[in-house]
Amino acid sequence: MNPLIIPVFLPSMGCRERCLFCNQKASAERLPSPSSVRNFIETSLSVIPFDKRNREKQVAFYGGSFTAIHRDEQVRYLKEVQPFLASGLIDSIRISTRPDALDEETLSMIKEYRVKTIEVGVQSMIDEVLLLAHRGHCAEDTITTTWRLKQWNFEVGFQLMIGLPGDTFNRFLQTLDRVIVLQPDFVRIHPTLVLKGAPLENLWRTGGYSPLSLDEAVQWLKKGILKLENSSIRVARIGLQPTKELERDFLAGPYHPALHQLIDSAIFFDMAEYLLENHPNGSQSIFFCHLKDISNLKGQRNENILKLKNHFKLSEILIDGRQEWPRGCLGLQTQEGEVLIDRKSLIF
Ligand code: SF4
């Protein structure tokens, strides 16, 4: 189960230059002082719903490159969390940072302050894509850093992006192949969006950049997720968290507040299509799936069912949701009995 995160945002702290896609602005007013972090944690703990209090709780320093800020400043922030760790109210600390800011000395220091999880801004494993995105690091930095993090026993998360300038579907698959070799504990993947105030806005306005369409993003991510799942790498999140700021700043690109669900629906559509193609069974079809997968099978606004009915000339599609059925698995009633497909066995 994912830990309960208490996020402390340090916008642009530790950033060397602005990445092409980023619209965070360094602003002293928006930066929480180390001393305000303690109050923030106390307030956040007091509003955790009763039924979630037993979950692992992590304070996460997000929004910049934590280990690239001045060492004394890192220590000041980390020290504010220590009383909560000592009392057991908080279990551990998470930070996000860039791959070239994690040397041995830094790792030794943050380990001492009980940082458990490090989210590394990998974005892509293709150097040209990283260069065009003004990341200031290369794929080799991610490789070196990941082995180092594993030696130090940190939990490692990768943040990846699709659709950056210079990225292609094949390059995304190459990135995933390299990620799979490195075996992070989890990944987050975000489609590139054009946001107000990001350097990418100008490139987009002058015709130098076209974002992926929503449909393209779903197709890329559908295959990407299955590839990662087949390699037992957990996909912690797909798409940026919908926030008021994101809605305000969004200009173009494949944004959808429920992107992960769109992708799961596309996967269920492919599974249903595969079963119906290989086991034609008259004009009525009965599918079986876990209760929680019914909405994935139906798709948004019943879109999958309508498409399947139309394509296979079916008069009726019935869905039997079962509590004991494995998640991500779809069954179809045929004259010979039930036939099954698991999402992991989908071959493109
Ligand atoms: S994406 Fe991350 S590293 Fe790049 S400028 Fe924004 S906050 Fe800094």
Detailed description of the structure:
This protein is α/β, with parallel strands linked by helices and 348 residues long. The strands form 3 sheets. The protein has a 7-stranded parallel β-sheet with strand order 1-2-3-4-5-6-8. Strands 11-10-12-13 form a 4-stranded mixed β-sheet, with helices on one face. The model has no long low-confidence stretch (mean pLDDT 94). The protein is built from 12 helices and 13 strands. The structure holds iron/sulfur cluster (SF4). Iron/sulfur cluster binds next to loops.
Write out key terms for the chains shown.
348 residues, 7-stranded parallel beta sheet, 12 helices, binds iron/sulfur cluster
In a few lines, what is going on in this structure?
With 348 residues, this protein is of the alpha/beta class. It has 12 helices and 13 strands. Helix 3 links the parallel strand 3 and strand 4 (115-123).
Helix content: 25-40%
Output the strand order for the largest sheet: 1-2-3-4-5-6-8
Spans of at least 5 consecutive residues with low confidence:
none
What is the terminal separation in angstroms?
A: 30 Å
Return the string of H and E elements: EHEHEHEHHEHEEHHEHEHEHHEEE
What does the main sheet amount to? 7 strands, parallel
So what's the overall shape? Answer: globular
Structural class: alpha/beta
Bound molecules: iron/sulfur cluster
- The tally of strands reads 13
The share of residues in extended strands comes to: 15-25%
